[in-house]
Structure formats: C-alpha cells, structure tokens
Specification:
This protein has 383 residues and is an alpha/beta fold. It has three domains: 40 residues, no CATH class; 73 residues, Arc Repressor Mutant, subunit A; 224 residues, 3-Layer(aba) Sandwich (Rossmann fold), CATH 3.40.50.150. Helix 9 packs across helix 13. Helix 14 links the parallel strand 4 and strand 5. The N and C termini lie far apart (53 Å). The longest helix is centred in the middle third of the chain and has 22 residues. It is built from 18 helices and ten strands. It has a seven-stranded mixed sheet with strand order 6-5-4-7-8-10-9, sandwiched between helices. Strands 1-3-2 form a three-stranded antiparallel sheet.
C-alpha cells in the first residue's frame, strides 16, 4: 500500500527483468556511496570522470546564475557597446551607469561564460558567444522576454501543480490578440525577430525550386515567407494568421523585391478554412505551442486543404535530438508548460501525427542546426 511520499517499486513493469534497469540501479547505488566518491576522486583512472561529473552537476546548480548574468549583459546592452571593438572599464562605467565593483563583477562573470574576453589594462572585448549575439538579434530578444519565464520559475513546484495564469501565458496571449485585447505588435515582435534567426536554417534543408505556391500557417509578420520567396523567386507565398496580425503585417510590408510575391490572409487556423491549392504548406515553430488534440487537428486541416501531390513541412526544435537533449524536454518542456499549452515532441511523434492525418513518405530534411530546428516533410498522395 502506497502513501504520499513513498514509492511502491514492485509496480514498475519489467523491473526485475530489464538488464538496463538493473545495471543503472547498481551504478547509482555505487555513485551514491560517499566512500566510492572519495575513492574515485583520488584514483587516477577515475579522477577525470569524477571531476567531469562534479562540474556537470555544478553547472546545473549554477544555471540560474548563468542565465541572470546573461540577462544583465543584455539589459545593459554590453554586446552592442563593444560591437566596434574593445573598451576600457572607464568607458563601460560611463555607458552603463553601474558602480565599478558591481560592473567588474558582471564583466568577470560574463568572461567566465565566454561572452567577453579580458585584456591587459582593464580592456574588455567580446568573446565568441558575445560576438555571435551581434549576428543574431533574436537571441537578445529571447533573453529579454525570459523575465516572464523566470518569474514563473520562482517556485517551480507550484508551477508544476498549477499552470494557469502564468506570466508567460499572459505574454503569449493568443486569445487576447484574437479578440483585440492585446496589440498584435506585442504578439508578433518577438516571433518575427526570432523567426528570422532560423528561417535560413530551414531553407538550407529544403529545395523549393519546383514549387509555385506556399502557405505559411501562423506565419506572423511573414518573416519565414519573406526568406522563402527571396531564396526561391519562383514562389508566391500566402501568410495566414489572425486577422489583426495579418492586417498589421500587410500594412507594414516593405516595398522590396519580395513584396509582390507575398500576400497576407487573416483567419483563425483552428476554426477557419485554410487557403487551398498550395504546393506546400509550412508550420514553422507552431505545433509545439499546442497540445496534442489541437496540433493533430491542425495537421489534419492542412492535409484536407492541400491538393493531391501537395506537401506539408513541419519545422521546429524537436525533443531527444542527439547532442541537444537538454534543449528539448528540459528547456522547451518547462517553457511550454509555463506558457500554458503545448509540449516538445520527438521527430518520431510528429511523423506519426502526420501519418495519422494521411501524409505519406514522411521524411526528415537535414537541417544545418538541428539543435534549434529540425525539418519534416510529408506528401499528400491520396485524397
């Protein structure tokens, strides 16, 4: 009989027959033994492993400090202050208005994270990670909006027990944008900034030279569609999003080379008919924002709207991506939980959802940056 705070271990299916479980149980019992840990730290053959594991655990423990160091770095705009080259501490004191001891604490912390480099004579320049932020303004935008996520994570167990009315859910208030209670500018700004950051990665993975018509579902201000028609001039694209978002995006459209190839159509992707007769429909970082039932409904609608031989492309970060496991279930798992809907899915899960809708030959197109976005494409062969 189980009570709160206790586990009934013999209820675990296959517990006694799984060699992997039995090995892990033995390993964990060994690692949890203080005498073994002392021995491992002193023994040359195991010292490197023990030190690496201790460092990994420390990084997890200190992760919030790292994220707040980055938040202060971005809030003070240090990466842009150093964009033209290194600067002395005195110049940064004047630009930021932060007292010298506090500023030095931040600059040294940022150096430890690879955001900055320190030189002789109190000179500071960008490190590799800081320089990378200049090429990707979406990173700073994401960091700034993370204040909402951090507020929700102040009490993580409370968040796990109750995900309603979170700060992040209020930020991504789809329903309020739909009814006009929240400005579409607020809703679209971050999506547009961050979407441009990964659009080229997606387009590097696909070949749209044989396509004529593209519909980007929940395409926001058209960041992905603009990149697509610029890369493949043969395409005409329709961006489908909420009426308020589509209207704002159309009004703000630049008269550049892509303008004539883009149009915006307003509608609710769950309730209204999707544009038809497209060669390809795209869902770029959309499905993981929604729970299983509405996500499956949206894939089904795409299948119905596509003509025979049409294709659906799904592009988003996916769980259990080799080498990036912490991005999927860890970062996006908590992010989407705080947002109030959606969950990270594996490529296998998304493939299954596309197949349920009727798509055939679902395959992955190789993304140059799978940690940030992976790409699946499915064909509509049968009606």
């Amino acid at each position: 009989m189980s009570v709160q705070g206790q586990l009934v271990r013999n209820e675990t299916p296959g517990y006694s027959t799984s060699w992997r479980l039995r090995w892990h149980q033995y390993r964990n019992k060994l690692i949890a033994n203080p005498r073994f840990q002392k021995w491992a730290a002193r023994t040359p053959l195991t010292r490197l492993i023990a030190n690496r594991r201790a460092t990994q655990l420390h990084h997890i423990t200190a992760g919030f400090v790292y994220s707040q160091t980055l938040a202060a770095f971005v809030e003070l705009d240090i990466h842009n202050l150093l964009a033209d080259g290194p600067a002395q501490t005195e110049g940064l004191l004047s630009a930021t208005g932060i007292p010298e001891p506090a500023l030095l604490t931040l600059l040294k912390a940022a150096t430890g994270l690879g955001l900055l480099e320190s030189y002789e004579g109190s000179l500071w320049g960008l490190g590799e990670l800081g320089a990378a932020m200049l090429a990707n303004p979406g990173i700073a935008a994401m960091v700034r909006h993370h204040q909402h996520l951090y507020a929700d994570l102040t009490d993580p167990t409370a968040l796990l027990r109750q995900r309603d009315s979170t700060a992040l859910a209020n930020y991504w208030a789809y329903g309020e944008v739909k009814t006009g209670e929240i400005s579409p500018e607020t809703y679209s700004e971050l999506m547009a900034t961050s979407q441009g950051m990964i659009a080229d990665y997606v387009l590097d993975a696909v070949d749209f030279r044989d396509k004529v018509s593209l519909v980007d579902i929940a395409g926001g201000t058209g960041a992905f569609a603009r990149h697509a028609v610029a890369r493949f001039p043969n395409i005409r694209a329709t961006v489908f999003d909420l009426p308020a978002v589509a209207e704002q995006a159309a009004a703000a459209q630049n008269n550049d080379d892509t303008a004539n190839a883009l149009q915006y159509q307003g509608g609710d992707m769950f309730e209204d008919p999707l544009p038809e007769q497209a060669d390809i429909m795209t869902l770029v970082r959309v499905l993981h924002d929604h729970d299983d039932k509405p996500a499956q409904h949206l894939i089904n609608k795409a299948f119905q709207a596509l003509p025979l031989n049409g294709q659906l492309m799904v592009a988003e970060p996916m769980a259990e991506t080799p080498g990036s496991e912490s991005i999927g279930h860890t970062y996006f798992g908590f992010y989407l939980w705080a947002m109030g809907s959606g969950r990270p899915r594996t490529a296998t899960e998304l493939t299954s959802m596309m197949q349920i809708a009727g798509f055939n030959n679902v395959r992955e197109a190789k993304s140059p940056m799978p940690s940030l976005v992976r790409v699946l494409i499915g064909d509509k062969i049968n009606a």
